Amino acid sequence: MFKNTLNKNFIVITASLFVLFNAGCTSVSDKEQVSLSHGIDESAGNVSTYIITTDSATYHLEKEGGGLSSMIDKDGIDWIGFTNEKGSGWKGEYRGFPNAIHKQDGNYFHAMNAGTDVSNSVVEIETKQHVRITFTSGNGQWQGQWDFYPERLDFTMSKVSAGHHYWIQYEGVPGGKMDETDFWFASQNPTPQPIKEPFLGDLPSPEWIAFGDKEQSRVLYLLHHEDDEYPDNYVSRPYMTVFGFGRSNKRKFLDTPQTFSIGFVESTEYLKVDEAVKRVLR
How far is 68 from 71, CA to CA, in rounded Å? Predict the structure, then answer.
């Protein structure tokens, strides 16, 4: 009798604690870490965009051209700085990601400027952890798949026009403005390089590069998931960076479906960035 009473009381107490604990907790899977909305990117010239908000960044994906017009960090700083003003050149209209298809059976996957051709898009996945938007070029020969996760964005060139080539580029402004405080480092060298220091060569596996600003506590990285022997090229331009996977000067080398990631790491230390990109690959 005494034992039964103790067991019943124990069960009641345990159940009560379970209810109280769960009433104040939300599992990671239930927490909304990626959300999709629709709006206007005013800084880009009032272009219409998908707005994807995550734990690490806010992305504006321009709806007609199929490229990023803004990538905003936790402090509200835009690391791309695109504007559709014709003639703005390096000051705005050239900027973006992935800026992949240029004079190769069209001009696609760039935030819409005077030289961009129109693409069509569809939202294929929309959950609290993952948003997928796929763009198909107006001529039907190219397809780009955007996968947004809490900590990063993956872009996959899922269809390549036969006989043509592309590159994957980041053309933007580290820390919100291109200046002497900016730097880069990459998988081939842990030493930070001045932002005006060029690079041309095949980045060693895993192929990645990161851009930062000495006044900021984070970097923006770009990662190529597949290793190859094609050149990767960084050059500085007035007002913006120009980095391309599968690029040598103005030549393009990529001609098969491949995946690339872009995201922020909340550190400027080489080893922490290296660990972060390797986690993505795992």
Answer: 7
